[in-house]
Prior knowledge:
By secondary structure, this protein is an alpha/beta fold. About 35% of the residues lie in helices and about 25% in strands.
Amino acid sequence: xxxxxxxxxxxxxxxxxxxxxxxxxxxxxxxxxxxxxxxxxxxxxxxxxxxxxxxxxxxxxxxxxxxxxxxxxxxxxxxxxxxxxxxxxxxxxxxxxxxxxxxxxxxxxxxxxxxxxxxxxxxxxxxxxxxxxxxxxxxxxxxxxxxxxxxxxxxxxxxxxxxxxxxxxxxxxxxxxxxxxxxxxxxxxxxxxxxxxxxxxxxxxxxxxxxxxxxxxxxxxxxxxxxxxxxxxxxxxxxxxxxxxxxxxxxxxxxxx
Length: 257
C-alpha cells in the first residue's frame, strides 16, 4: 500500500480538472477500459445502475443513450452542472460516496472507476461499505483501483511535485492482493480481477500513439480510448501478457454482494 502526494488536495484537484475539461461525448470504444469491463455485467434494461464518480460523463452518457436506467453522482458540482446543460434528460446528481443519499439495496450494479483510490484509512473503508449498502443482494460492483507496482512507482516519481513543501494526499496505490483483501474484508465475493492499462505508459510518448492521437486531446482519449500505434500495441500486449502485475496501471474488479 503506497500513498502519493501532490500540492493540491483531492477536492481542489478534481474541481480544477472537471472545470477545465469539456463534457465528454459518450464513450464509443467498447474494447477499451472501462466499457470492456462494465459491459460484462450490464446486459439487462431492467437493471438500476449507479455510476459513483461519474465525472464529465463518458460512461454515464454511453448507457443513458442506450436506455439503461443509470444514475450518476459526483462530488464536484461543476461536473453536474455541465452535464445537465448538455443533456437535461440525464439523471445526474451531486453526491459523495462516503454518504450516499440512497436506501439500502437500491442498485443492481454500481460502477466505480477511479474512485476508491482517492481515499485512505477510515474513508476508504467507509466508501466500500456505502457501496455495499446500496447494492441489492446478489448485485455487482465493477471498480478500478490504482496499482502499486514498478511502472506506477516510476510514473509517480517522474510527475510528483518535487519542489513543493506542502504535500496533500492524492491517491492510494494497492497491490492486487491488497485490493482483493479490501473488497473481501468488506463483504464482497470476488468474481474476477483484471490487470489493465487505462492510459498506457507508452501513450505518454508521441511516437507510440496511433496516427490520429499524435496531438494529445484528453476528451478524445477518454471517448475513444488511449490508442497506441501498431508497435505500441505490440509492446503493451507483450508486457501485459508476461508481466501483467508489473506493467498494468489499474486493477479492475468485478465482485458480488
